[in-house]
Amino acid sequence: MLESKKCKIIDATCPRVKASQKIVERYSNDADYVVLTGDKNHGEVIGIAGYAGKNFSLIQDYKEAEGFVLDDSDSKNIILLSQTTYSPKEFLRIEQLFKKRYKNLAVMNTICPATNERQTALLELCKNVDGVLVVGGKNSANTKRLYQTAAANCKYAAHIQTAAEIPELFLKLKKIGITAGASTPDLIIESVENALL
To answer: Which helix (H) or strand (E) holds 182?
Structure first.
């Protein structure tokens, strides 16, 4: 419809997501089988799954991976890949489980390096602050995972979308760390910083 109106269409899909789409499209239709780890309600995962043929499964977490059984796996190459913002730790656990289970496993770590870097930096940050504010959308998968990491590694952690949501407690802490989801606008991060000054 847009083409018929002579609109210019620009594909702004992240190159890493596009690569995952191509992998799924190529390998889920042949003698291979593709397993994608990720959140079934996430836009990226829904989009990638749209490229899948009949030889495809989505696994959301380690528990689902434990229950996953692929019949006649000896006759298929199994390709394991992931949502770009998936937990690196969880992906590694699933990878190790599958390596024990399937001899024809090929692992394609499609997690965005920035996701890993954010998690690593957050762990270091947690050691040096009294509390951590995680800024980003409530539906953002990578922001939720950042919050889970902060909550597990720091005495006080909160997931906020705007400066107006900063809990009163954080205004009394001496050292506060701030991290943000991949798609959180700089303006919102700056407003949170300014509200803490």
So the answer is: none
Q: Could you report how far apart the first and last alpha carbons of the chain are, in Å?
A: 50
Dihedrals phi, psi of 43, to nearest 5 degrees: -55, -40
Q: Find the catalytic residue in 3, 25, 44, 193.
A: 44
Q: Which pLDDT does position 24 carry in this prediction? A: 94
pLDDT at residue 8, rounded to an integer: 85
Q: Which residue do the tokens 């998936």 mark?
A: 86
For 149, phi and psi rounded to 5 degrees?
A: -65, -45
The yes-or-no answer on residue 190 being catalytic is no
Q: What is this structure's pTM?
A: 0.76
Q: State the alpha helices, DSSP H only, in the chain.
A: 15-27, 43-49, 62-67, 88-101, 113-126, 141-153, 186-196
The residue type of 30 is D
Closest-CA residue to 159 (of 195, 126, 131, 125):
131
Burial of 194 (0-12, 13-18, 19+ CB in 10 A): exposed
**Residue 146, number of CB atoms within 10 A of its CB:** 28
What share of residues in the chain are helix, strand, coil (percent, to 5)? 45, 15, 35
**Percent of the chain predicted with pLDDT > 90:** 67
